[in-house]
Amino acid sequence: MKWLLFGLTLLAVCVFGLAVGQQWINPFDASGQDAVILWELRLPRLLTAFAVGGLLALAGAWFQVLLGNPLAEPYVLGVAGSASAGAVSGLMLMPDSAWVMSIGAFIGAWVGIVCVMFFSHLGANRMLLAGVVLAAFWSAVLALLLALLPEQGLFRAFSWMMGDLSHSDLPVSLLLLAWVVALVCGLLLSRSLDVLLLGERHAEALGIDVKRLRQRLLLLASAVTALAVTAAGTIGFVGLVIPHLMRLLFGSLHRAVLPASAIGGGVLLMLADSAARTVIAPAELPVGILTAIIGVPVFLFLLLRRPT
Fold this sequence. Notes:
Elements: H1 2-19, H2 33-67, H3 79-93, H4 98-118, H5 124-148, H6 151-161, H7 172-188, H8 190-196, H9 200-205, H10 210-232, H11 238-250, H12 254-276, H13 287-305
Helix pairs in contact: 1-2, 1-12, 2-7, 2-10, 2-11, 2-12, 3-4, 3-5, 3-6, 3-10, 4-10, 7-12, 11-12, 11-13, 12-13
């Protein structure tokens, strides 16, 4: 029954996302220019939001197991900061090229991943500490780059840093394929993730190569985060809130938590993006602001429900 309601919610959000915007369109009776707006503009953007939200939620679930910290989320190790620095570096080279900005973000994200991987052998606690320090470093680099950025690129940079689905240049098909591959990889590792929750000693006693598993998780979660950040900029709270909410609804087994998170993250970001392009239409709000507005009270509610 839970999965049925979950599926119906996804369908309802899809219809709602197609209908709302600067002008409201009936998805079941669209023709002419309305059909073009619906299927060539809104649908690709909606699918992008679904894929990015799902990827961030999956990465959040993995990082929480990897670091043994329920407050971990995709940007905790500084990947977002390095990606932002890379994106702004691209803007400095070619202010009018969105592709250069996306390439810079992807390269920057992987530079951040390589830096974190260097500390992965130190254990979860030290890796987390290294990630926090690296995030501070990338923030300083980003501030320096923004100070040097030409004025015409500042709005584009700040818009991307607050989350922006309106200028995503990655093909929707690539993002959806990444969503499927990430979910399949997660399901293949789901049993090992369940065992790892019991503690490293228990996992090793049951034959799990903990060090190798952590490296796989770090690489997989970081790669997914890099792709999501490249596509839509910095969008917070999706990877933090959704895995918690899905565990509350579906239990702690990852064979249920991971697909639920992949869908739930997509639903949340579709809702946020639909609101972002509707609330002050024809202008748009940064979608990252709305995910924070939604995510903060939800997370506080979850803390009250499960204080331990």
